[in-house]
Amino acid sequence: MDFNKVCVLGMGYIGLPTASTLAMQGMEVVGVDANARVVRILRDGEIHIHEPGLRTLAQAAFNSGRLTIKDEPEEADAFILAVQTPLRENHQADMAYVVSAAESIVPFLRSGNLVVLESTSPPRTTMDLLAPILEQSGLTTGEDYYLAYTPERVLPGQILKELIDNARVIGGYDRSSAEAGRDLYLSFVRGEIYLTDATTAEMVKLMENTARDISIAVANEFSRLAEHFGLSVWEAIELANLHPRVNILRPGPGVGGHCISIDPYFLIQAAPEMTGLMQRARTVNDGQPAFVVARIERDLQGLSDRRIAALGLAYKADVDDLRNSPAVEVARLLASKGAKVATFEPFALEAVPEGCVPAGSLEDAVKDADAVALLVDHRQFRELDPQALASQMPGREAFDTRGVWSSSVWEQGGFRLHTLGVRAPDA
Ligand SMILES: NC(=O)c1ccc[n+]([C@@H]2O[C@H](COP(=O)([O-])OP(=O)(O)OC[C@H]3O[C@@H](n4cnc5c(N)ncnc54)[C@H](O)[C@@H]3O)[C@@H](O)[C@H]2O)c1
């Protein structure tokens, strides 16, 4: 199939790179967003999210005249839905954005069109939720128009590269829909494209992230055991991973973001009685911020009025994304226990966890601090020079929740370094 015009719904971390990439491949692309602020910023030629290289790519797409931004869809050869699928408070998937995006294209759907859902979704969403909405157009799925699901598996921070290079799974409502999806993605994907059915493709994404969540949960439990038995979890993991069939992940202050901490619930909600291990992993990972805070409280012999500089709030290194971030939860919990917490998140200076004070710079964050706590291993924090830091802050306690600071270097710098998964210096 040939596609000349594509309408991408949702101009977020996934939709904007996808729309820009398609435009740079020569397609006419309409980028649609329901958020007036997003539409305004993009129409001004700016971007509203941080992703390396995205500003340059999006601006090239705008300047080519092939990417235009609208607040509602219009007729096209293909529609890509890349809207958010968050979790509700009750841990049920909130599919309202997918539903409204699908409903918004019904008036514009024509015979021969392709619709692709990219949003991470519970199994059977394409077949049981999306197809019935789109059939309100009077068209029959698989006969009059094609419907496919393709999961996004890009890594924030490397989205532009992975969008093109990663292998892609495309699941069709039927075989011809999968093939139509392949024809669209072949226009920019260099990785292998594997065709399957829509529900398998939905499941693939959820299985990947759920397996990762469980692997991180076991690493987090190892960190607790290492402190209990008085050893370094980092050394033990490094040695265990020398085995050719072992690959233990790194522990940390918890699991966040919009994928790994959410996607397992899409399976848990669908079959609670079959997902005991997944539920337990979620509990372990969600409990890790409290474990980290208890450790800091113990090592500082109390938190009341202790001045702590919390470094990083993003859910992982070198991104600006704070969604479900365990670092935010650690900062909030420290403050709720009476600590005076100054946070410094270089990628989101205005972010303020409840009870904390945001600092505009590292110097500002540490200037009165008794202790510094690394919550996110942003490159700038990994490379911190403890000797320089010692001249900027009164305290000499340092906490590393990511296992990236060297104890000998920090001790030479005059600090007492407390590392997650390593017994406290004189415990
Ligand atoms: N961000 C990632 O790295 C990543 C990776 C893999 C999968 N995903 C999945 O991809 C999907 C999109 O994620 P994201 O991070 O790009 O989300 P996002 O929140 O950054 O962007 C979604 C955009 O969709 C817009 N939107 C909502 N309803 C709309 C509608 N009816 N019409 C038009 N626009 C609408 C929102 O205003 C928002 O700008 C989610 O399901 C997510 O789980 C994301």
Instruction: State the end-to-end CA separation.
Output: 67 Å
* Named CATH topology of the largest domain: Rossmann fold
Shape: elongated
> How many strand elements?
14
Query: If you compute it from the alpha carbons, what radius of gyration comes out, rounded to the nearest whole angstrom?
Result: 24 Å
What are the bound molecules?
nicotinamide-adenine-dinucleotide
| Helix count from the secondary structure assignment | 16
Name given to the CATH homologous superfamily of the largest domain: NAD(P)-binding Rossmann-like Domain
The tally of domains stands at 3
List keywords for this structure.
3 domains; 8-stranded mixed sheet; N-(1-d-carboxylethyl)-l-norvaline Dehydrogenase, domain 2; Rossmann fold; 6-stranded parallel sheet; alpha/beta; 16 helices; 427 residues
Structure write-up:
The chain is α/β, with parallel strands linked by helices and 427 residues long. The chain folds into three domains: 5-191, NAD(P)-binding Rossmann-like Domain (Rossmann fold), CATH 3.40.50; 205-280, N-(1-d-carboxylethyl)-l-norvaline Dehydrogenase, domain 2 (Orthogonal Bundle); 287-419, Rossmann fold (3-Layer(aba) Sandwich), CATH 3.40.50. 39% of the residues lie in helices and 14% in strands. The chain is built from 16 helices and 14 strands. The strands form two sheets. The protein has an eight-stranded mixed beta sheet, sandwiched between helices. Strands 11-10-9-12-13-14 form a six-stranded parallel beta sheet. Strand 13 (397-400), helix 16 (407-412) and strand 14 form a beta-alpha-beta unit. It is elongated, with a radius of gyration of 24 Å. The termini are far apart. The mean pLDDT is 96.
